[in-house]
């Protein structure tokens, strides 16, 4: 268990927010070392230990966040984080149980393909079951290496995780056979690793040259850096609006943003009132859009009644105003944060609500995933938590989006690894959908990301900032957008199929 626990810690240090990539490989190798000579039951416990240390370090920032904004005493927040880590640890435990079942029966090169496929599959399950929580998946460690993640347009982020873990397993098998002086088998694994690596690099080089198209619009992401402690104070709303107006003008007119079409993205709930009811705010925003000739996308709360006299439904929304001041559309957040924006699980929620009195009571949006601005511009919108789910970005593009806007408020997380972990997922949304991503975060990280995953502009956290870029509007659909997870499932199947003959024959091969 010692090596599994330390493996989980080192593994986490290689993910965004920490960024020590060698630590990630060291952590995974320690984990695999801990699984040697284990049976399925011991493998399950070993994988669970790895998961607990990994997820607790990955998500520790939830404790001070819940303490500060959930009004839960700090000593009680760590058991909450531990409970979440306990659930998430079941996925690497399940992987380790299956891996150790085949450990003694399967050649290492076949075991590597099986393990790589199953790792991606367990991450997909984690990102899908029980509303999903695909935070900090293995592939996110490559967010700074766009050349290596281009296959995400075919396999999604989970396929990249499979390939990366396959590579680690090939390295581990190479080490094992080298230690045993099995030269022939070592050579197979060595060649297998380089085949995977060079194949990914070749695909990356081809794809990264395909999306250098002339710019169609000027995109502006505004970061107000409004402290969460005063964000909702009505007395500072005027100051907040003036700050956003000033930063927007700087981005549009002082930074060579000379295209006719300007798309400005403000963060989630940048307007801290019900826009639909506040005629003064409506007039100011519409006038600003007219005077400056911009499409203005901003976040605000909204509500509506399903039937007269019924309880109002509240939404976390985004509005788009055109250059003539007209309201072009509203988007309502569709994937809410459990225990943050809504309370799931029926009676259990009432108990949780007692300990989390500030948890929201929002409803799930049903409005379309994209807003059509002009004949040539349709904006797909992802609000905060939604940006970590590949399927939501895919849905937006299938609804006609030729650019993606991510609007978020990560001020809740403070100066922790969380804002960086969150932003890294937007890199993969760009590659999966082959769309520009304009990410506006209240306190950062804001970024403008090209369809090949290259960050064109990015910001520091907790400073007012504005970033701009001239971007192209692409219309072609990537294989992932067209076929969804089917490409990933087929890839996993191809990786797992080689183990079938050895399972059927029950041969104790040790190649």
Largest sheet: 6 strands, mixed
Count of alpha and pi helical runs: 17
Alpha carbon gyration radius: 24 Å
Structural domain count: 2
Flag low-confidence runs: 507-511
Helix/strand-derived category reads alpha/beta
Main location: membrane
Domain CN hydrolase: 222-473
Keywords: Acyltransferase, Cell membrane, Membrane, Transferase, Transmembrane, Transmembrane helix
Function: Catalyzes the phospholipid dependent N-acylation of the N-terminal cysteine of apolipoprotein, the last step in lipoprotein maturation.
Considering the chains and any ligands shown, give keywords for the structure.
single chain, 511 residues, alpha/beta, Nitrilase/N-carbamoyl-D-aminoacid amidohydrolase, 2 domains, 6-stranded mixed beta sheet, 17 helices, 48% helix, disordered C terminus, cell membrane, transferase, transmembrane helix, Apolipoprotein N-acyltransferase
Give a quick summary of the entry:
The chain is α/β, with parallel strands linked by helices. The protein is built from 17 helices and twelve strands.
Account of the 3D structure:
The protein is α/β, with parallel strands linked by helices. The chain folds into 2 domains: 2-209 and 487-505, no CATH class; 217-473, Nitrilase/N-carbamoyl-D-aminoacid amidohydrolase, CATH 3.60.110. Helices cover 48% and strands 14% of the residues. It has helices at residues 2-13, 21-35, 40-58, 62-69, 74-88, 90-103, 108-126, 152-179, 183-208, 237-253, 279-292, 347-355, 390-398, 418-433, 479-483, 486-496, 500-505, and strands at residues 217-223, 262-265, 295-304, 313-321, 327-332, 370-372, 378-383, 403-408, 437-441, 447-449, 455-458, 465-471. The strands form 2 sheets. A 6-stranded mixed beta sheet has the order 5-4-3-2-1-12. Strands 6-7-8-9-10-11 form a 6-stranded mixed beta sheet, with helices on one face. The longest helix is centred in the first third of the chain and has 28 residues, at 152-179. The two termini are 27 Å apart.
